[in-house]
Structures are given as structure tokens and as C-alpha cells.
Amino acid sequence: MNEQKLSQRLEAVSSYIPKGAVLADIGSDHAYLPCYAVLNELAEEAIAGEVVEGPFQSAVEQVAKSGLENRIEVRKGSGLSVLEKGEADCITIAGMGGTLITKILEEGRSILSGKERLILQPNVNANNIRKWLIDNEWQLLHEQILEEDEKIYEILVAEKGAPLLHYSKDKLETELLLGPILMRENSDVFEKKWKNERKHWERVLSDLSKAPGTPENLRKTEELKMKIKEIEEAVNNE
């Protein structure tokens, strides 16, 4: 992977960048995504944010190597703190856990103008992001699920708007977990992911049945039973 050829995961992320956007890539690592976006005229300009010194220096070097110093600025800082309010109209946060992405969004709420497009690619716990989007009145526009190198990733795209547009009142908890748009599309990768998750949770449930009946273990047991039931109702498990 480099600035000319992204991984399948990041290429999918890049496909949702509005043409001509000012892009902010948070946790940019080597800055491959912003370099690719500018070189391919997906973004007019970009900001690469990185909090760790090593990846920050790698991003600086990559931008220079690509000859894009006049169009991409690399900034060192935590999360959205590298931005001024309204400075970027598209923000990508990819390759982190959903809990961390949610934390970045929550801590940076004052920086978000509400005019941005958010493109979020959690490795796990996408449900945390969906809940944050609803709580903060961001509308889920697109969801995508894909498999690369035997790992399954989800992409969530959101803009300010009606937060419950794609959700059903009677299935809200299930749709937060599985993704309302992904549930409707019900792709092979979607089914594979949740069949695997169900098997994993059934193994954990079996282990818990042999453990002491503490309040914590009983709580975990009930939570897992509920999740397994939600998956069985939503996914074809033949």
C-alpha cells in the first residue's frame, strides 16, 4: 500500500469523499489516504492529523515525497484538536476501534460545525458509533461491510440530519448492533461476520455456564443470550 494504491479498506473509505472536499484524516499514520485523495482529485486539500511522533514524521515524509506540501498539511495533536471549527468539510477516521472513534468525536464536538461529512471505519464496536451519531443528531447515509485479508471491516458515512431515518423503532437495539442499512442489504460478508460472532458468543456462553453464578456472570449471560437472539432473528443462519 502507498499513496498510489490503497488497501481495499481505505479505497472504500476514499470512495465516499465528496469531490473537491477539504479533507481531514484523523489518525493518518503514513498519510496515504490524504495523499491518494488529493492525487486522484477526490479532495482539493487535506489535513493529516497524527498524535504519535513516529507516524507523524512518516506522514510528513510521505507528503513531501508525493510533492504535496502545498496541498496537504500534517499536524500533530490528539483527535479533532488539530482542526479549527469548520476548517474541513470531510473528516475520515479509519482503522481504530469504535470506542476510540466515539471518544474522538465526543471530545471534538465543539470543533464540528455540523456541515462536515463523517466517514468512519471502525475495526470493532461500530454500534458505539451508531449510538453516538443518533445522540448527536447525525444521519447515517451509507454503510458498507467488506472483507480484506481475512478481516471484516465496516464503514459508516454520516452527515447532520434526521438521526433515526434508517432505523425501526421496534428493532433499534438490533440495528444499532448490526447496522440498519447493512441488515437490509444482508450481503454474504454481513452474514459471515454475524454467524462467526454468534458462534463466538455461544462458546463464551458455554464457558459462563460452568463458571460461578456471580451477579456479573449472570448479567453477562443474559446480555449474550439477547445478542444471540438478535442475530438469529436478523441473519439467515441455515
From TrEMBL:
One Pfam family it belongs to: TrmK
Any one GO molecular-function label of the UniProt entry: tRNA (adenine(22)-N1)-methyltransferase activity
Top-rank taxon, per record: Bacteria
InterPro entries membership: SAM-dependent_MTases_sf, TrmK
Keyword Coiled coil: no
Gene Ontology process terms (BP): methylation
Keyword Translocase assigned: no
Keywords: Methyltransferase, Transferase
Protein name: tRNA (Adenine(22)-N(1))-methyltransferase TrmK
Organism for this UniProt entry: Metabacillus lacus
